[in-house]
Design goal:
The complex is a heterodimer. By secondary structure, chain A is mainly α. Chain A has helices at about 5-15, 15-35, 55-65, 70-80, 80-115, 115-130, 135-145, 150-155, 170-195, 200-205, 210-225, 225-240, 245-250, 255-265, 270-300; strands at about 40, 50. Classes of the chains: A mainly alpha, B mainly alpha. The interface between A and B is large, with 115 and 110 residues.
Chain lengths: ~300, ~270
């Protein structure tokens, strides 16, 4: 008799509690976001109209549907602020992911070539920053990048620059912060695919007369593409909605969409517009999320 | 094989530079937290005065206490739920809603925090829940249980099933077989999952900002609002304390993993 078959029954019951939890606290809330994005802004507590009230029965539901409006979405399209911050988020996420790939790949490649006993240590060293506070790591960079910070002190001492360079509140600072924070997310999936690679393939390429460069570009790199895809999505998707890093490190003249959402919500108290911004961001994320979901599933269930 | 596997100078350089990039800023932060000078960038000798400042700052201490409570409770809830989810995903046959289930568990891992935070807040408002400790805890549980699921599931996937089968051949019912054969083997990854959930909760500023109520700020929220106003030596000290706590947690987690897991496998997150 197969253990798998017998396990299947009880295992199904194990799904009930987490299923309900995620449905209630992850899936259902999106319904509220959608609903409120279609509501009117109001000076009230909570600041939106109409408030859904099921106790008043069907008539109330009908009235509520009649009051739904696309005004918030019209605003998003008509006001440059929103279009520009969506575009900026796309550009920042794309550029950061490219830089991350350029930095992460050589590191992951070197890790995969380490002697086996060193690989575990190197992996631990990459994971530890992922565990340590992300806010603290951004703060650490503010220390370094500020006007009389360490970076400027070093640059001045080496006579590379004659005046302190303005780093904070610039795009360079933001890119440094993003690359720094997301580097482990890029390195780990890359390393995972590179370490699994069959060395016999490289040997075969060498035996057939390929130079190390040729072997890399014709064998190693194409075979590592799933890792490249996983790493890129793991970085691109969250960077697209990033708030803390651009808020602390970039200038305030152009905002990323996460900042715009935050501003609408916390400063302008315009919940319906904030919800509409979230809905549009979510729509932009559907394709990369679906792709990521497929990769993740394939990777985790390969062992099934 | 030997020739292709040898490290080139380029490999070594990229590894060293990569790790230096990851660690130097943190090291610098820790060193400056012991700086006696009020000016953050001028070295004024070693001192513990900023640590003393922190322990005299009532508001900061309250926030830290709140964060620790949220992290402990949410990590525990998340570990229970996440482990159940991992078992269901890796041992259950196809059940209705399985695709949706795994989608719901993988999506929060990459979902921008502003969206998760906003949607949870709107739910809490609609439910008329009083915002504070429990709303933040529920929000953090929702996020971190997905990480626990991934960690435990990857361990379950690597596990040899013959032990479960043997236990059942010896007359255990599936539940007993799981408890006596499988659970001890995945315990290290469950511990690692708890620790990861704890540190992630301790770290979060965005979701907590959305879901908390007036008067119950978490430590990251307080740090964040101070940092927006500029660098302060006291913040260096607080950050160093948080880092120390997280380091203890990581070391404990890796020891727990090492003690029981088989060689060559690790319960690495992601």
């Amino acid at each position: 008799m197969s253990a798998r078959r017998i396990f299947a029954g009880p295992a199904r019951f194990a799904a009930i509690a987490p299923w309900l939890w995620m449905a209630l606290f992850f899936l259902v809330p999106f319904g509220f976001v959608l609903k409120i994005s279609l509501s009117q802004t109001a000076v009230a507590q909570p600041p939106y109209l109409p408030v859904f009230d099921l106790t008043e029965g069907f008539a109330a539901i009908k009235a509520a549907f009649a009051a739904l409006s696309l005004d918030n979405y019209r605003l998003l399209v008509s006001d440059n602020l929103y279009v520009l911050s969506y575009l900026r988020s796309m550009v920042v996420a794309a550029v950061s992911t490219t830089i991350l790939l350029l930095i992460g790949y050589p590191v992951a490649y070197a890790m995969a070539r380490l002697p086996l006993k060193w690989q575990g240590i190197a992996m631990m060293l990459v994971i530890v920053p992922f565990w340590t506070s992300f806010l603290i790591r951004i703060y650490a960079w503010i220390n370094i990048l500020q006007h009389d910070g360490l970076l400027n002190q070093i640059l001045l001492a080496l006579h590379i620059v004659s005046m302190p360079v303005v780093w904070l509140s610039t795009d360079s600072a933001m890119y440094i912060g993003i690359v720094y924070s997301y580097l482990p997310f890029m390195i780990l999936p890359l390393y995972a695919t590179l370490a699994k690679m069959d060395p016999a393939l490289l040997e075969a390429a060498g035996d057939l007369g390929a130079s190390p460069q040729q072997t890399f570009w014709l064998v190693t790199f194409p075979l590592s593409l799933p890792g490249v895809g996983a790493g890129a999505l793991l970085c691109f998707i969250p960077i697209l909605g990033e708030f803390v890093i651009p808020d602390l490190l970039a200038g305030s003249d152009s905002l990323m969409i996460g900042q715009t959402l935050w501003l609408e919500f916390f400063t302008n108290k315009d919940w319906p517009v904030a919800a509409a911004v979230a809905v549009v961001l979510l729509v932009l994320l559907v394709a990369p999320l679906a792709l990521y979901d497929r990769l993740q599933r394939r990777q985790l269930e390969a062992a099934r | 094989m030997n020739q292709t596997k040898r490290l080139s100078r380029f490999n070594i350089t990229s590894l060293v530079l990569g790790l230096a990039f990851l660690y130097l800023p943190i090291v610098i932060l820790v060193i400056y937290s012991f700086n006696a000078s009020r000016l953050v960038t001028v070295w004024g000798g070693w001192s513990l005065r900023w640590y003393a400042d922190f322990f005299n700052d009532r508001a900061m201490l309250d926030a830290a206490w709140m964060s620790l409570r949220v992290a402990a409770v949410s990590a525990t809830l998340a570990t229970g739920l996440g482990t159940l989810a991992a078992v269901a995903l890796s041992r259950g046959e196809r059940f209705r809603g399985r695709t949706l289930f795994s989608g719901m568990l993988y999506a929060p891992l990459v979902m921008p925090e502003v969206i998760t935070g906003l949607s949870l807040l709107l739910l809490f408002v609609a439910l008329n829940a009083e915002r504070g400790f429990w709303t933040v805890t529920i929000a953090h549980t929702t996020l971190t249980m997905c990480f626990v699921t991934v960690v435990v599931q990857s361990r379950l996937g690597k596990l040899d099933r013959s032990l479960e089968e043997a236990a059942m051949d010896l007359g255990c019912d599936p539940l007993r077989a799981f408890a006596s054969a499988t659970l001890p083997l995945i315990l290290p990854s469950i511990v690692a999952g708890w620790m990861l959930a704890f540190t992630l909760s301790l770290d979060d500023v965005v979701i907590a900002s959305f879901t908390t109520g007036p008067g119950s700020a978490t430590l990251p929220i307080r740090i964040y609002s101070e940092v927006r106003l500029g660098v302060k030596p006291q913040i260096n000290a607080i950050c160093t304390l948080v880092l120390a706590l997280i380091t203890v947690v990581i070391v404990a987690a890796s020891l727990a993993t090492k003690l029981t897991s088989t060689r060559g496998e690790s319960a690495a997150p992601l």
